[in-house]
Fold each of these.
Amino acid sequence: MRDKCANLLQTLRVNFERILQPHAVKPPENNYLHWPSEEIKMIAEREEFQLYSDDLFFRIYCAEDRPNVMVLCTLDIISALVDSGALAICDAAQKIATLCSWKVGISIEPRYVAYAIPASVDKAKSLNEAIKFLRADANAMAVLNRIWDPAKSFQESLAGASVLLSHIIQAPSTSPNKMASVMDIWCAKAKLRTDSEGPIDNIALLVASTAMRLAETDADFSAQLRSVYFALVEMEHGDKMDERKEKDAIVALGYMSAEIDVSSGLEGGRRLRVKIGAAFTPGTSEEEAFLRGYANASQDTALKTTQKQ
């Protein structure tokens, strides 16, 4: 780090005469509590300058009188370097993880989160081992803790988790352990929230929400979601997992699928009845349990509608 700082200082010295050092005149009639911040805001209002700051609220404040002002943060620079090919996405993910460990508030694209997960997770021989590897990786946990910040609502957290899971599932050669271990972190955090559902319902809601984001007719995605669902349900029950709990979990998934189909107005191949139902072999007890849960929810919804009338 010392060498990097020394190199940076040397570069600045060489280019010192090319560096603009704008300033603003402090109005005598105003007694600003923090003039340096006000000065930056005044300078940012000029069209020839672009604001660079990793403080989101400061960026918003500086753009108050100039809503179209161009603002930049470190994440914008990293993304531009990746898109131009100057920086490998895996290296970018590690830099973003460093920002997260510094508590810098940033909005992280799913592609960077996926690359922040260590390769050891994909190579793990079991889900428990994958979770162990994941939790031991400081960079990965810094990113996951950032995107699932407790300050966010359950719905915001759920949306972020489903976006990430849909991205990971569609990535080539992604192991089931990677999908399930990352989502296990989300499930553990979701259980602690007062605005969430029960543990199994949380998992069912996650899988159903993810299915909504995936292609309508891809059986591989449906099978992968099924695998993730059962893995997370088994992690939740631990040694108490048995056939009855498995069937109950399938019923819960069917019920949740029907609720979302109705509330979201999904039709045709977009229905979760089709997209998730494709993961269960026709005529099996698993399909029967899924359809039973789906039918129960449909009946409950119809009853609620009748009662309102």
Amino acid sequence: MVPQTPIIARNNCKIGKWTINSKEYQGRNQIAILKVSKLFGSFGETKNTLWGQVWFVCEEGSLPKQVVLVTYLKKRSLLSLLEIMTLIRLNKAEPASGIFSPIFVSQSASKSRRRYYVLEWEWEGLPGRERQLERYAKVLANESKLMIEPTWTRNMICLDGMSSWKAEMAVSDFIKKNK
């Protein structure tokens, strides 16, 4: 289920579609999120930014199924996911007990008037998912060491498990070292 080389499902916010390599996938996808990590760093033209690394399995939709995929979120797409996860927990539910639906929503950049897309997230709690959850728990227990993606993350630091003070210090040190 976890490939030796991670499959990066890019949420291409310039065109509002998912892409894997050069193949485009459109339409609604329903995904089970296995792991979310917070990273800080740079990739491409985006410098010194908070990123979310999301490992997931597509259960319905156009993306490949029965394989673990990874994607990266930033800015509004990341905030949308973190917000819905907080709301789920406030309602005394566990995010893994349901299915997430990331939806590309068109936006307009105020200065350039260019169109771009952000991901907004919906979640639906699904009772009776115990068997599926057990399967994903086994994947995490047995194959999580394969859930490493060095291409995008080589210029990033992981903030998982850090207090806000420690994360601030790590980000400050990162920025100083990468000027």
